[in-house]
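Journal club prep — side note

Before the paper discussion, L.F. wants everyone to see what a predicted structure for a comparable chain looks like in token form. Sequence:
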Amino acid sequence: LEAVEYLVSECHKVVVFCEFLSSINDVYSKLRKANISCRKLTGASSILIPTQDIQDFQKSKYEVFIGSTKAGGVGLTLTNFSNLIVLDMPWTSGDTEQAEDIIHRIGQTKTANIY
């Protein structure tokens, strides 16, 4: 959380991926209490809501995008951020690599960092 707060204070957008729903909910509630604009995406999210959230994130409406590695790490293009933090590493390294790849999509113009 300290890393996310620091990066946001430096005007960086951050994506946080977690493996466990409890971690996602904890991070989400603590960031909201810190008045950091964020959205979350999990497997329980509606199919229509994530599309709007992703569009809003790309348009700089939110500072932090929090998602589960499974729901958010596949098929997303989030090129409007500069930092990715992976918490609760999944058992399979391929899931982490897939999540990391969202920062290397066509259209990425910023230097992206993975933590």
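L.F.'s comment for the group: The CA atoms of residues 84 and 114 lie 5 Å apart. Keep this in mind when we get to the figures.
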